[in-house]
Design goal:
- By secondary structure, the protein is mostly helical.
- Helices cover 52% and strands 5% of the residues.
- The chain is built from 6 helices and 2 strands.
- Helix 4 (76-92) links the parallel strand 1 and strand 2.
- Helix 3 (49-58) packs parallel to helix 4 (76-92).
Length: 163
């Protein structure tokens, strides 16, 4: 939470993605945004996915679809945390209908969309978003500052070459 409290935009970006998807689906199903992958004793975003799923299962809502929207491919947070821990725990409590949506992984449609985005970006001549140069309000990381300087200086060099 310390990074989020310093102004990291991750929670807002994920929430905006969820809202955009639900808008496209005309809010056809109820949904809740929750968070996973708390590591260690430090505070993390809440409500936690495991706690949320178990609360619904205990209330009798046993058919749930988990959609790890911030992850486009399978990895430890989807394959282990959701599939092995959260879903397994839910099934032990009677949540036999708790499932995870398949990740995009190597979907041809997803790969084509990524290629389109990359091609548009490369043709634009822009190295990175202007947002990349903005530091989080409370950021004190010298590494972060150097990264931002690197990308913004690279941006200027690309613009000079294009002109």
């Amino acid at each position: 939470m310390s990074v989020v409290n310093r102004g990291d935009t991750y929670p807002a970006e994920v929430a905006a993605t969820v809202h955009a998807v639900m808008t496209r689906l005309n809010f056809s199903n109820p949904y809740r945004l929750c968070w996973q992958s708390q590591v260690g004793p430090s505070a993390w975003l809440g409500a936690q996915t495991s706690d949320t799923v178990m609360a619904y299962v205990r209330k009798g809502q046993t058919d749930l679809i988990l959609i790890p929207i911030a992850f486009t491919s399978d990895h430890i947070e989807t394959l282990f945390e959701l599939d092995q821990e959260v879903i397994h725990e839910a099934k032990q409590e009677g949540g036999t209908g708790v499932k995870r949506a398949e990740s995009l992984n190597g979907s041809p449609t997803f790969i084509a969309a990524l290629a389109d985005v990359a091609e548009r970006h490369l043709r634009s001549g822009e190295v990175c978003s202007r947002q990349m140069g903005i530091r989080c309000q409370g950021c004190k990381s010298e590494r972060c500052l150097e990264q931002k300087r690197f990308f913004m200086n690279t941006e200027r060099k690309v613009e000079e070459v294009i002109r």
